[in-house]
Amino acid sequence: MYEVTESSLLLDASIVAVRRDAVTMPRRIAHRDVVEHFGSAAVVAHDGERIALIRQYRHALGRRLWELPAGLLDVPGESALDAARRELREETGLQARTWGMLLDLATSPGMSDEATRIYLATDLSPVERPEPEDEEADMELAWVPLDEAKRMVLRGEIVNSIAVAGIFAAAEGAVRPAESPFDLRPRALARRRDGAGGNLA
């Protein structure tokens, strides 16, 4: 049951692909369209009292959203932790001496294999930031007390699901080792792009 008997590629775009699978169900074979994604890494950067939030334009919604620093796992051979380090540097101009893993999030499992690993970064210090491009060139950075970030979620001011999950996980303080296995990390799109998937640590 739930075995794929046939699969076809419907769309192959820059950061997503769409495939149609024929899947054996309890009483029949059904077709399911799946959005393949590289996955992403996000960071709750915490200075002891406040967290770093960024506000950037999201074209799919046509508005700016408050979010955590985050980015795609689209560099072949790059671990999720190294991607998180890169995104923290690129989006905030910070580096962290201490890293922990807060949680893994399946962002839309009814239609996509996208998953995000959310890290907690502490012991922060400034580092040279690369020149931003596209939406990042218009990005706003704000330092917000963690309790206020929770209130922003409850007031509907933060609606990005990754940010919501990361903020509440950080508030709970349940941190796992940063190198914990990332079993949810999507692999199909990366394998399609580089032929083998590289090292998807």
Automatic annotation (TrEMBL):
Protein name per Swiss-Prot or TrEMBL: NUDIX hydrolase
EC numbers on record: 3.6.-.-
Native species: Corynebacterium mastitidis
GO molecular function: hydrolase activity
Segments forming domain Nudix hydrolase: 35-166
PROSITE patterns: NUDIX
InterPro entries assigned to the protein according to its UniProt record, in alphabetical order: NUDIX_hydrolase-like_dom_sf (IPR015797), NUDIX_hydrolase_dom (IPR000086)
EC supergroup of this enzyme: hydrolase
